[in-house]
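The pair is quoted verbatim below.
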Amino acid sequence: MTKTILITGATGNISSGIITQLKGSEHRLQALVRNPEKAQDLKRQGVELRVGDLEKPWTLGSAFAGVDTVWILAPPGPRAPEQCSNALWAARQAGARHVVRLSAIGASHTAPTINSRLHALSDAELAASGIPFTILKPHYFMQNLLMAAQSIAQQGAMYFALADGKMGLIDSRDISEFAAHVLTNAGHEGKTYTLTGPASVSMHQIAAAISEAIGKTVTYVPVTAEAERQTILQMGIDEWMANLLGDYSAAYSLNWGDLVTDDFQRVTGKSPRSIAQFAKDFAGAFGK
């Protein structure tokens, strides 16, 4: 059955990946954007642009009109629950029949990270909305490792405040593929999926995979939380986000992220990308 699918966060990596997955399908794709002038690439791909701002609910009525299925993604930040709530209300008013939301690994009211606690608020609101829903809780993105691309290329070292913690990292391309499947296939209503890669690995194992991919020794150098925080701030990232990242580093250092699920393979019928495959695909970014 052909669906009209509205994609929020349309210019970000995950949502643009969903659009790539569904481009050329039978479904009608619409992208919610604040500034259509900055989304001309989507328009050239044949995606219909809908103009609206998730922080301005009065702009969303016409943007959501006529949609069957809604993908809700809000960037991490203190206003994320407000943005998700506005999107959900607009979806309800439009009569949407399915809402799929990007949450986060371990989202709960007692999670050790502020991001996971904020996501728990939006998860609870969606579950209580009465609209058929699906919640995706992805693990740490492999693409986050690209923050270390410069130090790997120049020094052969990657610096993170993750101690010897292990994580079931997932490639963001797999998240997009999984989301595209759920958005266009029945049977996922009322379900929550925790998305991980195929193995839980340490940063030392990740360094070894990157070494293999680029043909040069890469070393993981654990640093203190404060050292990482200062580096993040020097990169121009704001204090709120620096605190969010510090929360995750502290939790992952204690193996909070040491888990793997089979949700991706069970739903898609294939294995998620491994850290070795990710390293090969992005070897150029790491200095090969």
